[in-house]
Structures are given as structure tokens and as C-alpha cells.
Amino acid sequence: MAIRDEKRLRKIRAILVRRRRELLDELDRTDIASKRASRPSGIGDVMDRASSNLLTEEMLTLEENGRKELSEVDEALWVLEHGEYGCCQQCGRLIGTARLKAIPQTTLCIECRRLMDSTLEGALHAEARRSPKYIGEEEHEDTPPRQLSRTRATDIDDAASRKLFHQN
């Protein structure tokens, strides 16, 4: 059952609306700073450009995190407006009061959030295991990983060159 205390819901809504405004302001500032950082100055050495690229990457990460949190806040406001605030959107159980106080934009109980995180982590780990680690690995899919680690890019290039020249 969702939270029904109107006074508490108004307070939570005010917190979420204020956080939404803060995030929008932060995103505007980050966007402006990111554009400044990515603008080429025309002067400077390699280190200056590397520093500028790093700053741009950091700004983009901040912007991505801000947009993710903004999405969470918007979802929590929608849930609140539809009378479901305080209920886990995954399993339907009540979300703990301490969790709601700490993260008012949460829409998942701690158990469902942990499950989601572990599932995502597992999927990312599985994806990393599937991605080619060595140049030409896709040509050697049947080769055991132990032998693949000793495969050098020049060996693969030499084999490809021999194949190309022997075809002509």
C-alpha cells in the first residue's frame, strides 16, 4: 500500500520538485561548460588538447549522471501523482522509510534494486567476456583463450597477407 499521508506527500513532492530544478540548473551549467571545453582554441600543445579532452569527457559524464537522476526524479513525481509513491514498482512491497528519506526519487525497494544491479552487472560482465580481446580473435573463435593470449597482431597480419597474396 502506498503512502497516504497528504502532509508527508506534499513535503516529498516539494523535495522532488526542488531537486528537479537543481538538476536542470546543473545540466544547463554543465552543457555550457562542456561546450566551452570542447571548443578548439587553435593554440596549445598536445598536453593542452589532452587536458581539454579529459575535461570534456568529465563534463559529459556529469551530464549523463544528471540526466539519469533527472529521469529518476521525474519517474518518482509521476508515481507520486498517481498515488503509488512508497511502493516498489517492481514487486509492490513498501519501500523502507529510511530508503525513501535518503533517496526520495527511488521507486524500487532495496531488494529489487540490488537484484537489478546484480543482473545489470552480470550482463555487463557477460558482454565483456563476449567482446574480442585480441586483434583477429573473431578469426580464431575455436582457439582456446590460453592460446589466444599468445597470438600477436603481427602473426594475424602475416597470415592475412599470405592469404591475400596467394589468392592473386
Protein described:
The protein is mainly alpha-helical and about 170 residues long. The protein is built from six helices and no strands. α1 runs antiparallel to α2. About 15% of the residues have low confidence.
In whole angstroms, the N-to-C terminal distance is: 74 Å
CATH class identity of the domain at 6-108: Mainly Alpha
Give the rounded overall mean pLDDT. Answer: 76
* Secondary-structure arrangement, i.e. CATH architecture of the domain at 6-108: Up-down Bundle
What's the CATH topology label of the domain at 6-108? Four Helix Bundle (Hemerythrin (Met), subunit A)
Please estimate the helix content: 55-70%
Structural class: mainly alpha
Q: Estimate what percentage of residues fall within beta strands.
A: under 5%
Oligomer: single chain
Strand segment tally: 0
> Count of DSSP helices?
6
Q: List low-pLDDT spans.
A: 134-162
Order of helices and strands: HHHHHH
